[in-house]
Write a structure and sequence with these properties.
By secondary structure, the protein is mainly α. It is built from five helices and no strands. Helix 2 packs antiparallel against helix 3.
Length: 105
């Protein structure tokens, strides 16, 4: 499997495939960065989604809007990965490159 397909799959499988490709891929920096970014993005999304669901009255609307935004963002990242472009998300990429990549060396 080539690097582009691995990067795409790391975004498709949420944090599961992110961890899988981080653990399995040791040399390809594009795949490792994409997998780390996918992992951090999904963990942050889980935290935000949980927070939004705790807000009374408008929680269901916030969760729906957040889910739509998240799906569009993941589709955008998949398109960029299919073009062999690592798109750096603010804050998310910094966290993934500083911490997560070091965990799986």
């Amino acid at each position: 499997m080539n690097s582009k397909n691995k990067a795409i799959l790391s975004y498709l499988g949420m944090y599961f495939t992110g961890i899988l490709f981080l653990a399995a891929e040791k040399k390809d920096e594009f795949v490792r960065k994409s997998a780390a970014q996918s992992f951090v993005l999904n963990i942050v999304a889980i935290i935000f989604r949980t927070f939004f669901s705790l807000i009374p009255i408008i929680s269901s609307y916030l969760v729906i809007v957040f889910d739509i935004f998240f799906i569009i963002l993941v589709l955008f990242l998949i398109i960029k990965a299919s073009q062999y472009i690592y798109f750096k998300l603010p804050f998310i990429s910094d966290l993934s490159e500083k911490y997560v990549l070091d965990w799986f060396k």
